[in-house]
Structures are given as C-alpha cells and as structure tokens.
Write a structure and sequence with these properties.
Layout lengths: L2 H15 L2 H16 L4 E4 L3 H15 L5 E2 L5 H11 L4 H8 L7 E6 L11 H13 L2 E6 L4 H6 L2 E4 L8 H18 L16
Parallel strand pairs: 1-2, 1-3, 3-4, 4-5
Helix pairs in contact: 3-8, 4-5, 5-6
Length: about 200
C-alpha cells in the first residue's frame, strides 16, 4: 500500500468515526450565539491559526456572524508577544475586544493546550479567561482535546487513527467540520458563489 492510499484510508476512517451528535450540539450552540448577536473569536496556533483566518471569512460571509481572530493582526500579536509574553497574547487581545457572556471563543487546535507540558499556554489562558467572563467555549481538536476539551461547552475531537498523523488529520478535519457548520441549516445565511450559478 502506498503512503497516499494509507493516508486516504485514514481520512475515510476518521470521517466515519466523527461524533455526529457533538457536531450537531456545536451547531445549535453557535446558532444561539448568532441569535443573541454574539461574536465568535477564533483562536489557533500554527496551521490552526491559518485555519482560523479562513473560518472567520466563512462564518462572517456565509453564516452572517461577527467573527475575529487575533492572529489576523500580526502587528498587534507580535507586539503583545514581545512586550507581555506568549502566554497572555490572546487574553490581552480578548480583553480589548470586550469578550463577554454573549460571545464564544472557538479554538482550533491539534492538542487543545496542555498546562503540565506548557504546550499552547496562550490557548489555555484564553479558555480560562472565557470561562471567567461567561463566554462559551467551543473547539475542533485533535488527540484528546487537551485543556480546551475539558472546559468546552461543545467540542468535536478528531479521532486518532494513526498516532504518526495526528496533526495533518486534525488540521484537515478542522476545515471539513467548520465548512459543515457554515452550511448547516441552523447557521447558513447565504449560499456560496459557485452553487448559485448555473452549471
């Protein structure tokens, strides 16, 4: 079996193992945020940060929800990291954005943050802050979901089918799941361009 065949078989296995109820729960929670005129703040690091930028676009344009990601402003992010440190970089941004009880923090992460191993401490601090101000916490996560999954109101864990491929599958399925969400009947505000034109 080639590497490509093995990887695609893993993709199919993950798709079949996804927790459909967890995805539906997340859609319903985000619909309540939307109905309350709340905002979604997408948080991620590395490849997941790039996914946050894409998700912000889709949730704003296709679902009609006000959304932001701190990693979209590299000047502010790097100033906060330089002046105040990595751990507080997201919390400082969320405080200026006046994160509140009508809003949600949406974490895209392979591991979800780990306090004991000091992995993604800025995600951990942001989730703690969200809990403090009464904001909802949701996440699409890999492995066991880490700190985010333990505190989340709704979390989808991308199942591990190959311990050597946790990161590529987790980050790929972030995109699959958020695309599902923005087209979900509970959230969709308008169709995508190509679906609206004649074949």
């Amino acid at each position: 079996m080639t590497f490509t065949e093995k990887h695609l078989l893993e993709v199919a296995a993950i798709a079949h193992k996804l927790d459909v109820a967890a995805i539906e729960q997340m859609a319903a929670l985000l619909a309540r945020i939307k109905d309350a005129s709340g905002r979604i703040f997408f948080l991620g690091v590395g490849g997941s940060a790039a996914n946050c930028a894409h998700a912000v676009n889709d949730f704003r344009k296709l679902a009609g929800i006000e959304c932001y990601a701190p990693t979209d402003n590299v000047a502010e992010l790097t100033a906060r990291v330089n002046d105040e440190g990595w751990e507080s970089s997201f919390v400082g941004w969320l405080k200026v954005s006046r994160l509140g009880s009508k809003d949600a923090v949406f974490v895209l992460s392979v591991g979800g943050g780990d306090v004991d191993r000091d992995i993604s401490p800025n995600l951990v601090a942001a989730v703690k802050h969200a809990r403090t101000v009464g904001a909802k916490v949701v996440g699409i996560l890999g492995r066991d979901g880490g700190y985010t999954a333990r505190l989340a109101d709704a979390a989808v864990i991308v199942p591990t089918v190959n311990p050597a491929s946790v990161t590529p599958h987790a980050e790929a399925f972030q995109a699959i799941i958020w695309h599902l969400l923005v087209f979900h009947p509970l959230l969709s505000a308008k169709g995508a361009k190509w679906e609206s034109v004649d074949p």
